[in-house]
Amino acid sequence: ISDASVPGMPIVFASEGFFKMTGYEPAEILGHSLEKLYGADSDPTTVAMIREAMETHQAVSTCILNYRKDGRSFWNHLSLQPVSDSSGSLRYYVATQV
């Protein structure tokens, strides 16, 4: 879960499965953006599409090559869903990764 009210939309919650999948510890991920998982072979067009969706408060679902803490890559089917409060203001982005 990323906080959409803060510049850079930092991660404020991640599941234990996320930490196992990526090899990161909570202190290394919380407060950072999903971009921490991008690497040399992450497709720049896909990265731009994800950024654009988040900047325009849209949902997005795509596959992207991400990287674990140890540098090993993995294919990630990423789905991002915006979550608004009762007044319609964007509050969070919820990401699922498979």
TrEMBL record:
SUPFAM superfamilies in the record: PYP-like sensor domain (PAS domain) (SSF55785)
Alphabetically ordered keywords of this record: Chromophore, Flavoprotein, FMN
Protein's UniProt keywords contain Metal-binding: no
Every PAC domain range: 58-98
Keyword Protease: no
A Pfam cross-reference name: PAS_9
Domain PAS per the UniProt entry, residue ranges: 1-57
Top-level taxon of the source organism: Eukaryota
Entry GO terms, CC: nucleus
Protein name: PAS domain-containing protein
